[in-house]
């Protein structure tokens, strides 16, 4: 295993920018991959130490794929997450004026973020989709389009200049990325952690999902994300990708996971890792009765009852 | 502590009959007490080893009292339960004919069991209540009433004869009794056990009881009895007396009890003891995922996840 | 039907005192009955207009009976409830001194209320049970016992005097009584109402009770009382007596009742009537989303969705 | 409004193939759009009658976008869904042999479907991403790549031939598309219908999602899909996209929707429409108590209770 990280390429995308916020990348080789599956396979095959891919709300695609890839195949584990605010620059060849732009390109997922800006500033422009935002920039460099939406950081790489920066529609302007490796002992809890699991439903009777959620609720474990995903074994067969607050070493989380495992034999643990968006000091404590010390106290009480000492 | 059992007296009642079904009574002194509280206080004070009292559906009163007494005061523990089918005999002085009966007596709680019989056989009789069914028999012996409803076994003691036996209305013709002692290690599980607890509610917001029940439901622990009882601290303050299937040493029951204890700080364990009404061979197994071996398997799985070995 | 009310006799008990707090009793004949079943049968048979009986936490017995009687047989309906604080007087024949009391009597259910007082004031007295507290007073009048615990109001009737009044142990010193009649349209809501129903369980699978409670919880209807009662059709067969906040004409209550009725085919409505213990001005409003106006607004919204007008 | 349907272009994609399975397309102009937002905006602006876009498990991107677009902006409604099995063909210029293929292209979302095939048949090929599968075919026509993965139907349009067909990895090989229009009265129920809504969470306390699901579960409405989606108003703010079995005119569905609306003031109805994957004859009936006739019966029962006729 080389000391390298794969990531969803090409170079010059938001994914690379997000990856470089991790300090350890200074000493790793960063390898762009053609797709999320390719990046994750490189981890599974031992070609790289880890892979860095978008997992939620990307403007570069790959989200659904990422989840489906983590759910299937040999087990992987999430070690880190990174949140990046996404804003676009309008990149042109030096000298191009706004009024001269007739064609514009970008990855299709960028469109919702720039739509309002386009309506207000370039209402008559022709949009064509590119395979990636970086590829769009390259196509502008080659003269095929007049302008591309991409990260401002892409300008230098492709010899372009930013006519406008900080373009983004109001909503969903953050993307979440994860660093994925082979299974190993999770990092110690920081006090602001997240645990990801995938649970396959047993059947589709009404209330099945409700029972699943009660495993968490009854232990006071807050859910941050819930996605049903088709399993590929016929329409109507779903698994649930779940992000829960807390770390697998928290007793409430551990008990909830064991509860899941008993009721839903097919559960895949995807990792416990620090939450990117919050400071541990700002994390709410677990609800009454759900701290590790309260678990210990209840355990002591049970032992006293079993011994008749009360 | 003497080797004696107190019971709800007087002698010659269904309670005594139920008590004598326990083999160990052959070597104990059996002490009738004037009331359930008196019987339980004798246990608390160490005057007797245990007390035997009705707890559900009695035809001799005492039910509500029993629960309230177990809930309050120094902790006690249930060690055994006995179910007794209740049928009445109509007891008269020798020589009395049915047509001569003008007055009849019994404990008021007997009335629902004999009402239909009275309507059909003695529609014009005058009913007066007695302090107990045995006391009613005594009053017939003394000539104060013509007939008494009591257990057939009471006839010999009071010099009466049974004009009719097996009298009971269709419904609720069983009474449940419990043998109560000071806290000690519960008997080992038999495979058909019951666990009794009392839980004090924290407040009366809608759904509070629902949360309580979810502690059991999520661990697959079936409830057999649920009673809300006023706590005496003002109207609207309740505690819940709960009988759950299983033994405190069953892992699903233990986890449910710990869950209760964390969320409802005031919980009183009342014992784990064999169920009187079922044969261990006929007990349904716990629902899928809730056996001790499945708890162990889930625990192993969690350890593997925590170690990254999957 | 005569303009008369039956009640659980005899005369001179707390039940009669509670009954006389209802203004309309001034113009009714009040008929003491030997038992709760007798009182309720008198209603069913049209002999009286209504019956007044204890239903919760009585010091005169009858509670379990009352519930069982309402649950079975021809339908009845609760129209009113009365709460009475129970305190005892120690009644003796004129001239008797405390130090001369060797024997004392009362209904067995009185014992828990006077136990502490007895321990502190008459530790060596002999207790014998009476069929009712009034009957105990009568037996003192006849000279059979030295003293009786009963309501202070009973002294005059039996030619006794109160050596001590306001005797009661701290807990459970209130009794709830209900006025029961044949089914008719419930009284209009007062803003502080209660609805009583009985629900027969369909089977005893784990979680059955949970589902029942969810019918209320999901509509924001708070439960005030929940009792499981054996149905008499064999051990393990229970019905649930439920008191819920609100009136059957409140939309949240109506929807919850319909939900119950669909899932549990055997439901018995026992009445909607004013809550005795609270002032309508102090009643909490229903939780967010559960007022009648919010039901109407949601209904309007649904109609707009069905019409495509949104 | 012209009689035209917009769809996610370009021409020659699976989306177009799926759209053409709708009989009414024979008489409509079909207009390819550059992106899902552009297609939906064309509906909102009245430029087209409806838009046809992928919504689940696409091999052409657009999924997340579709949901986000339906959730935000002026209301739209789903009228139809189409399921299409996705299999790829390997398209080359006439005369190209498999052994001559050095470069291959397709939309990135196609990669998971063809990965295994590539590993087995063209392990050393260079993959580059295209903006769409159709665009990849065009680039092969232009000579820029040796081969493209696309629908077999794309071959004729771009002067290519299929070297191999029916390529797909085992899983997730179906895509779901929806036909979206402006709000109007939904089509009548077919017996196998689906209702889509979006619900914004009120806050992120544990159990919030659980309460939401209970609104459905308590009315016996089965959920087919549940997605949490960030609302764009900061990390941790989610809405839930829900597909439920049944039609808004089914009483259980209507009551569940009203329940949602009361508790979660921000609910958006997205339509009731026929389920593509099942025959109405094979649809399970609603669970016991949840049919329209049982709703009616319960409603009648409530009316009788309110009138005192029982």
UniProtKB/TrEMBL annotation, chains A, B, C, D:
The keyword Oxidoreductase does not apply. Residues 4-182 form the Prephenate dehydratase domain. The record marks 175 as: Essential for prephenate dehydratase activity. The keyword Lyase applies. GO terms for biological process: L-phenylalanine biosynthetic process. Residues 197-274 form the ACT domain. Its EC number is 4.2.1.51. Keywords: Amino-acid biosynthesis, Aromatic amino acid biosynthesis, Lyase, Phenylalanine biosynthesis. It catalyses: prephenate + H(+) = 3-phenylpyruvate + CO2 + H2O. It holds the Pfam family ACT. Pathway: Amino-acid biosynthesis; L-phenylalanine biosynthesis; phenylpyruvate from prephenate: step 1/1. GO terms for molecular function: prephenate dehydratase activity. GO terms for cellular component: cytoplasm. SUPFAM superfamilies: ACT-like, Periplasmic binding protein-like II. PANTHER family: PREPHENATE DEHYDRATASE P PROTEIN, PREPHENATE DEHYDRATASE-RELATED. Homodimer. This is Prephenate dehydratase. It comes from Streptomyces fagopyri. The gene is pheA.
